[in-house]
Amino acid sequence: MKIAMIGTGYVGLVSGVCFSDFGHDVVCVDKDPKKIDMLERGEVPIYEPGLDALMAKNVEAGRLSFTLDLASAIEGAEAVFIAVGTPTRRGDGHADLTYVMAAATEIAEMAKDYVVVVTKSTVPVGTNRQVKQTIKKANPTLEFDVASNPEFLREGAAIDDFMRPDRVVAGVQSDKAADVMNELYRPLSLRDFPVVVTDLESAEMIKYAANAFLATKITFINEIAALCEKVGADVKQVSKGMGMDGRIGDKFLHAGPGYGGSCFPKDTKALARIGQEHAVPMQITETVITVNEEIKRRMITKLEDLCGGSFNGKTIAMLGVTFKPDTDDMRDAPALTIVPALVGGGAKVRVCDPQGQHEGEALLPGVHWIEDPYKAAQNADLVVVLTEWNEFRGLNLKKLANKMAVPHMADLRNVYSVKDAKRAGFEAYDSIGRMGFMKD
Ligand SMILES: NC(=O)c1ccc[n+]([C@@H]2O[C@H](COP(=O)([O-])OP(=O)(O)OC[C@H]3O[C@@H](n4cnc5c(N)ncnc54)[C@H](O)[C@@H]3O)[C@@H](O)[C@H]2O)c1
Q1: Strand 144-148 to strand 115-119: parallel, antiparallel, or no bridges (unpaired)?
Q2: The domain at 201-440 falls in which architecture?
Q3: Which residues carry out catalysis?
Q4: Could you tell me where the DSSP H helices lie in 119-263?
Q5: What ligand 1 atom has the least distance to the C-alpha of 122?
Q6: CA 263 to ligand 1: nearest atom
Q7: In sequence order, what are the residues at sequence separation of 6 or more whose Cβ sits closer than 8 angstroms to the Cβ of residue 328?
Q8: Which of 262, 263, 327 best tests ligand 1's pocket when mutated (most atoms within 8 Å of CB)?
Q9: What is the dihedral of CA 7, 10, 13, 18, to 10 degrees?
Q10: pLDDT digits (tens, 9 = 90+) for 293-322
Q11: Does ligand 1 come within 6 angstroms of the Cβ of 86?
């Protein structure tokens, strides 16, 4: 089957590469000439483990190509995917649909034969109907269907998530479109990965409901963590005990510095906005958004305490700034709230992140980027583990503590323990939802 994929970001590129690996002929289109240039040279513009090899394999097999020219990509395609960004609209929290609607108009202007226009971008309920109207208006004689196919992949594990999904959701309005969707995902359904066919609105809602639920689960355990610190409980033990309950499950129960990333912050805001527009306030989601902001700010207070009450004149080594490990994505990362507060408070901040510098340089002004965590900690007053990259999970804590002027650690991912920190010679250690210690 021939497919055109509009947008070669985290979702479009991974989806395009994986569909080509299923055996489909895929042409990926982007408006950004720099990205297309890189892709044509065989370079991957984002950091996603395993993507470069899978891309090279399918380009070599002649099933995958890249272009700036939408018309040629669409020619003969049975499905055209829209996988462009839907960032938060300035001012009201709504998803900005400018890019989706622009892509829909371009498809309408260039498509000649029957095609299924599949929205993979995360879009508010009703958007697929809007896409349909937009195409109909621009090209009244075109035969086409729309389909909603929200994506659930996680950055850092995107290929595995796409190839081995818990489920694929396909919202359709016609049998013809359902047939195309089933054909596209046949390699998965043959291996018993479920393809759930729904109406358009339900498919759109599933994505927002799923993300809001996961954001709620993380925020819930983060709030419990704050209480654990006051009552002397250990949130790691609490999570473990809770997660063993089959009705709860152990995923998304790791306490940390607050959720961030390209999806949860914007999707929770968009869901809250959709609720307001329909006079059905999403009160739980609205509270989650507020509590998550408070949690991020609570981290700043924690760090301030470890610096003796003020950041002024302190040197702080920040290990990890991407919103999670194994990605270069900095969108809405907790680091974007925490690091500016340290810099603004007069601290010298050294940042070490295996993939974050390229994106992070513009977003975190006034910091020094250092590749080696031990060099970053040299003569520092505080080391902070903010993103749990593998590189920071197995640090030689003794070596780290020895390099520091004041061996204090904030472990905002609960990678280490009080025992580890004391044994290594740290004089103060704090983490999330567990008792820390401070030498008098
Ligand atoms: N990133 C994730 O982990 C993730 C997971 C699930 C769903 N989603 C959703 O998928 C969508 C895409 O997210 P992303 O992270 O891949 O975005 P992104 O910003 O990384 O990529 C979007 C790409 O689309 C291109 N583009 C925009 N308009 C275009 C046009 N008219 N023609 C051609 N190219 C165009 C941009 O140049 C960019 O390369 C969003 O709606 C997001 O919510 C993202």
Answers
A1: parallel
A2: 3-Layer(aba) Sandwich (3.40)
A3: 263
A4: 127-138, 158-163, 175-184, 186-189, 200-231, 235-243
A5: 41
A6: 43
A7: 46, 47, 322, 355, 356, 358, 359
A8: 262
A9: -140
A10: 999 999 999 999 999 999 999 999 999 999
A11: yes
* 216 within ligand 1 shell (Cβ under 6 A): no
Domain chopping of the chain, boundaries: 2-198, 201-440
- Reported as a single tens digit per residue, the pLDDT across 97-116 is 999 999 999 999 999 999 99
Q: Alpha-carbon distance 302 to 294, whole Å?
A: 12
Ligand 1 atom showing the smallest separation from residue 152 Cα? 6
Write out the CATH class of domain 2-198.
Answer: alpha beta
List C-alpha distances in Å: 139 to 101, 107, 128, 326.
14, 9, 16, 43
* Cα(355)–Cα(371) distance, integer angstroms: 10
Q: Which of 89, 151, 266 to mutate to test the pocket of ligand 1 (most atoms within 8 A of CB)?
A: 151
The residues, ordered by sequence, that sit 6+ positions from 253 with a Cβ below 8 Å of its Cβ are: 217, 218, 221, 239, 242, 243
Tell me if 2-198 shares its fold with 201-440.
yes
Share of the chain above pLDDT 70, in %: 100
